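Task: sequence in, structure out. Protein: Acid tolerance regulatory protein ActR.
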Amino acid sequence: MNGEETVDANITGGDTSLLIVDDDKPFLTRLARAMEQRGFQVETAESVEEAVAKARANPPAYAVVDMRLGDGNGLDVVAAIREKRADARTIILTGYGNIATAVTAVKLGAVDYLSKPADADDVFAALTRTSGERAAPPENPMSADRVRWEHIQRVYEMCERNVSETARRLNMHRRTLQRILAKRAPR
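Result:
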């Protein structure tokens, strides 16, 4: 995509309203600008509270919502949008991609789930993809080491960052887990 494409007005009856929710201000600003250039009427929010208020006051046709926000979970925003507008096309963005949250997001009405960093072309494609159209496989899929690391991180977060409990659930020695957690994420 070249960034000059515009929204297909037939997708949601001509409504091109888009709510972008992210607590990363520079990313939010860049994505909002890029989506405006593609024909969307963009509204932004930096918190769950602000996004839910905007969604209830003026439910958008499209939404891009970060999973983890400073004051809560982006899935609450997805639910609030769905409550007011069942035909809204919502996608979840997250730096903590895992299957459980992807399934929950889809059950709440999200049409796609993208891992950060996602560029404007990926977001645009996810928002405008027709329901029967499949997403293209990723050019750079996660390595097996990265998938393992993501799983360990997810369990660690579920255990409220308790190393001993995480090690027990993963059937792993506590010191081995501590070494893994101390390292940077593999590519």
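The CA atoms of residues 111 and 131 lie 8 Å apart.
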